[in-house]
Every structure is written in C-alpha cells, then in structure tokens.
Amino acid sequence: MKPVRVGLIGLGTVGQGVISVLRENAAEIERRVGRPVVVTHASARDIHKTRPITMDGITLVADAMSIARDADVDVVVEVIGGHGIAKDAILAALARGKPVVTANKALLAEEGNAIFGAARKAGVPVAFEASVAGGIPIIKAIREGLAGNRIESLAGIINGTCNYILTQMTVKGQPYAEALADAQKLGYAEADPTFDVEGVDAAHKLTILASIAFGMPLSFSGVACEGIAKVSAQDISLAGTLGYRIKLLGIAKRAETGVELRVHPTLIPDDHLLAKVDGVLNSVVVQGNAVGQIGFYGRGAGGNATASAVIADLVDVARGLGSDAKHQVPALAFQADAVAALPLLPISAIESSFYVRLRVADEPGVLKALTGILAAHEISIEAILQKEPRGGEDATVALITSRVVEHRFDAAMAEMCALPFVREGASRLRVEHFK
To answer: Looking at residue 303, what is its pLDDT?
Structure first.
C-alpha cells in the first residue's frame, strides 16, 4: 500500500529522533496505521553536515518552504521552533491542504489562534502533542481521555531545566548560579537560559494546556509569569524544614470570577506527587469533576521522547487522511464555535497561601509585631519557624499563611518590610496545597 509521505522541517535532535523512531518501529506503526509512514523529504540549514543517522531515501533540501509546497509530501512535520520560517512553512502547508504536526509551543501559544483558524479553513488538522511535556501524552489525555469531565484545574512541572536546577539546590545544597552552570554543562540549559529560568517556556506550555482544558482561545499574554532566579538555598532549606519542596509550577485554575493562568516558584507539601518529581522529568496533575485528581509523569524533553509524541500525532493524522474535518477531534478539544474567551484574573486577584522569609533584628517584640500586622489584615498563620541567631547575627523568621487574596497579602507584606527591625532581602513565595 502507498506509504504516508512525511516532509520533515528540521534535522536537529528531535528531527533525527523522528527518523530513527519511525525506522525502528516501522512495522508496529504500519500495523496501527494500515500503511507505512516514511520520511521522504527533509530540510536543514546545512544539508552537507555529517549526521549520526543515514539519510538514505530522503530528499534533503535547505529550503523549508519547498517541503511545505512539495506535491510529493502528504504530511508536514515542523520541529525547528521559533516563529519566522516555521510559521510561514506551516501556513503554506495548510494553504495547500496538507496536515501539519508541530512541536512548536512558542508559536502556538503566541500565534496559534490564527494558525488553527487557517487549518479550519483548509479542512486539515494541526497536531501538537509534542509541544508540551515531551513524551507525556498530556494533550491527548486532556483533549480525549478526559473529554467527559469539566476540568477544574491543572498544575504541572513543565520545564525540565528549572526542575533540574531546583533539584540540585534541594538535594546538593547548591546555590542557584552553580546549579544553573551545571545544567548548562549537561545541555539541560541554553547558553542564554532566560526563556527557561524566567518561566517563559512554561508559560507557553501552560497557555496550550489551559486552552484545551477550558475551551478558551490561546491567551499567552494573560499568563502571570515569575522565574526561579530569586529562589535561594535558604528558602529551599526552610521550606524543607516546614515540610515543603519548591518547584516551578504552571497553574491553570477556574475560579468563580474567572481563570487563573500563572507560572511561578511554588511550595508544595512534600508528600504530594509533584514534590517527588526531580531532575529533568515533567509531571502534570489534572483535576476533573468526574475523575478527581489524576497525574501524568515522564520525560519532558529529549530527542526520542519528543519524537514519540510527534509520531503519535503522525499516526493520528495518517489514520484520518482523506476524512472529513468535521469528523476529526477538534484541535482545541471543543468545537470551534464553542471555544469562548473567559475572563482572566490578574495575579493580584488570585487567592493563595504564602511563604515569607524575613531577616530581623534579635530583639523583643519582633514576632508580636509581625503577627499583629497579619492579624490586622485578617491573615492567619498556618506554620512559623524562627532560626535563632549566632554570635550577634540577625534572626530569621519563616512563616506560611492561610489562603488570602494576593493584593491583601502584598499590603501586609509591605507593612512588615517597613518595620525598623526588618532587614532587606525578604522572600515571598506562593504555596499550593491541592486540596
């Protein structure tokens, strides 16, 4: 039977992984699809570069757009990332009626509404399982496996770089800069790690997850984003003493007044599933009104893990080639005319518990003054820890509050920091209990 001919845009780690896994599992994939799925065309910036895989049987070109336009390509797979060429090639493929598979979370999060609109107009799918959490099939799970649920919330460790850094700081006691340098040496972090450590990569992924969970347009600009650079080894140690681990979480949650979309370092009880996810692994916990809380765990990046997700999409697309678009699973889980904008809550309006660390003078009345300010703002304390000073040093006070709207807590925090015995360098992080 005639094979499904794949045009691959990008021959980096993921692109080579797609070719390798398709070849290794060719017989199994053919059994699932009913015919072979083969990469017949590929583009790369340097077509003369020596690669660890053979390119036999593949037409290799430098022009990505030629892949999108080639009449001998049935499905286009884009794994180069970014906007520019990737966007142009995807739109060109869709305009010619070719289904697209992409791992490009940044492009989808920021310009996906237009791309999915173009796909609907062309009557072909855009599949994007590999855009979030690497080899974990979280897109399909939310879009199809949990289709009988009203999704109430989801939270996840969806950036392996940050998780590795925080794990090193927790397990080895490394300072942030040293843990980041190790991540760069091992290839887990880029030379410029800004997108990862400032939470932007996680925000892109959260945008996609929230859209398919809640049936809302992709809303990257509405994600409140805070990175991990200000998390100190002292915060991690104190959190551990209080019974928590610190992780960078992406959180999407329905509230009575709107939707919360936020990425930030978070204290998690150390007996929770997410607290136990270390290194570069990813995990997502979803709360559905019928199924309750359900968790997903696995490799969130890497050539073969991401290739696994790309090929799962290829299998779905290949099965549906030639079928009416009306009978395909909607890209954003809900029928296009049912996808509706929801009010997005500013971070100041969300409700959370808070962890606070203060360096204070060692003198009488400190705790009374601090707790008095919190009481005046109707904020109760769930846990408190005081580290006694050594040799005339300042004391350290760490506490965890009850749940409170953020702007109310910020007002109390400002008052505490203004007290004459409170030193500079206070720390404040959000806490999630998943109750």
So the answer is: 81
CATH number of this structure's domain 350-431: 3.30.70.260
What's the confidence (pLDDT) of residue 390? Answer: 75
H-assigned helices in 34-104: 64-69, 84-95
Q: Give the integer Cα–Cα distance in Å for 110 and 126.
A: 15
Residues 101 and 78 sit within 8 Å (Cβ to Cβ): yes
> What is the DSSP track for 322-344?
TS-GGGSPPTTSS-GGG----PB
The pLDDT tens digits for 242-257 are: 999 999 999 999 988 9
- Of the residues 205, 230, 247, 253, only one is catalytic, namely 205
Is 205 catalytic? The answer is yes
φ and ψ at residue 95, rounded to 5 degrees = -60, -25
Query: What pLDDT, on a 0 to 100 scale, did the predictor assign at position 301?
Result: 81
Query: How wide is the angle at C-alpha 413 spanned by C-alphas 409 and 418, nearest 5°?
Result: 155
Q: Hey, what are 290's tokens?
A: 């019928």
If you write DSSP's letter for every residue of 156-185 in order, what string do you get?
A: EE--HHHHHHHHHHHHS---HHHHHHHHHH
CATH number for 4-135+303-338 (one of 1.10.340.30, 3.40.50.720, 3.20.20.70, 3.90.1310.10): it is: 3.40.50.720
Q: Do 61 and 47 form a contact (C-beta atoms < 8 A)?
A: yes
Quick one: fold of 140-299? Dihydrodipicolinate Reductase; domain 2 (3.30.360)
Strands of 83-150, DSSP E: 100-102, 126-127
Question: pLDDT tens across 339-376, in order?
Answer: 999 999 999 999 999 999 999 998 889 999 999 999 99
Contact present, 83 and 75 (Cβ < 8 Å): no
What is the per-residue pLDDT for 195?
Answer: 94
* pLDDT score of 110: 97
- Residues of the chain short of pLDDT 70, as ranges, are 391
Res 68: pLDDT: 96
pLDDT, residue 300, reads 84
- Rg of the chain over Cα atoms, rounded to whole angstroms, equals 24
In the chain, domain spans: 4-135+303-338, 140-299, 350-431
**Residue with tokens 């559905």, as numbered in its chain:** 288
